[in-house]
Amino acid sequence: MQKTLADSVIVLDFETTGLSPQYGDRAIEIGAVRLEQGRIVDRFQKLMNPGFRISRFIEEYTGITNEMLRREPPCEEVMAEFAGFIEGHHYVAHNASFDRRFLEAELKRAKRTYTGECCCSLLVSRRIYQDAPNHRLQTLVAHAGVARTGSFHRALADAEMTAYVWQSMIERVRSQYGVPVVFFDQMRELSKLSKLYAHRYLSSLAESHERGQERQD
DNA sequence: TGCCAGGCCCTCTTTAGGGCCTT
């Protein structure tokens, strides 16, 4: 896959029956948006039937009920369709290790493959928004001052708001560190560094850009 | 019916423990 701009990715979110696909939990909703140069140009949202009744806790947590899922298509059918939506793109998710486990498990059941990379907006936010009271999505939406697009804990609204938080973090890299073009791989690298080295890394990106500009001049 | 995980990150750390995040 060629070098990707940080603001041209898929941002996705799953609602699920629990925390662990290894213990039988399944996806019940997928929501995703496609960013192109910082603008949402496409959306994907589907409920899916996991094949068993979901707990009352999940009904209350997400607002998705057993009645709503009763006539929805099975996970395999929805995820086969989603494989086409995400194909050829990297993706971002809030606490991506959680969504990655469900994406891999559900795509495997649907007999589909995906070869892109993921980046965690939660880990990036711990470097970019070190002054936030915490790094839950709901808190970051308020902290970054981005639009609330719907109910929290519904997949498409969470994906949209994650996309806006992601975009605001890219803007901060641009404005605070003077890095005009930010790549997906650079955000991934940033997410893996300690807070101290994250600051140094961002400063080095700006210096690299300035050296590039000098060579052009 | 009720239960389960896992990776990151900080510190009173590294021969560890516990909070944060996601559903």
Automatic annotation (TrEMBL):
The entry's keywords: Exonuclease, Hydrolase, Nuclease
InterPro entries the UniProt entry points to: DnaQ (IPR006054), Ribonucl_H (IPR013520), RNaseH-like_sf (IPR012337), RNaseH_sf (IPR036397)
Keyword Hydrolase in annotation: yes
Chain ranges passing through the membrane: none
Name this polypeptide is given: 3'-5' exonuclease
Domain Exonuclease stretches: 8-175
An example molecular function term from Gene Ontology annotations: exonuclease activity
Parts forming coiled coils: none
Pfam families: RNase_T
Source organism (scientific name): Prosthecochloris ethylica
Keyword Nuclease among UniProt keywords: yes
